[in-house]
Model the fold of this input.
Amino acid sequence: MPCVIEVELRNWRPDDVPAVLAAFRAPDMARQAARPIDTPEAALEWMALWGFRDDARGFAVVAGGEVVGNVAVSNIDAHDTGWVSYWTSPHARGRGVAVAAATKLAEWAFRERGLFRLELGHRLDNPASCAVATRAGFAVEGVERAKIRYGTVRHDVERHARLATD
Done:
């Protein structure tokens, strides 16, 4: 899949703390974090989760020399399947950053990790995430009813997947 914008995927570094804190100040990002990411210590702890692990790998997404997002594959299992997630900072949205990052992550996961299947899901009320998934080559597979909960509200999730053979 062609990338709309050129991005680099790299390890998270301690000097990325300001970018992480700025991203998680956005209300839509803050509600998706398991706990608040509002201090340098919390940002460092969050970045450490994406280090080198057997079941997950996350990358800082850099565009124009600036950290503008995260892309990751997690829950890697014995079936060579992983779960893809991504986010971009509010000021970087709408430029194709997430599409480029998800595309590069898929290429990396298939080539370097030897994965065969990548899955992702988005709330039905998040058409922007659906567009990212589709443009990055992830085919729609169906809707999972009431799959996730934010606060007291449950949301249906549309599942997408991309195979190494796609």
Observations:
- The helical segments are 17-25, 27-30, 40-49, 97-111, 127-135.
- DSSP finds five helices and seven strands in the chain.
- The chain has a mean pLDDT of 93.
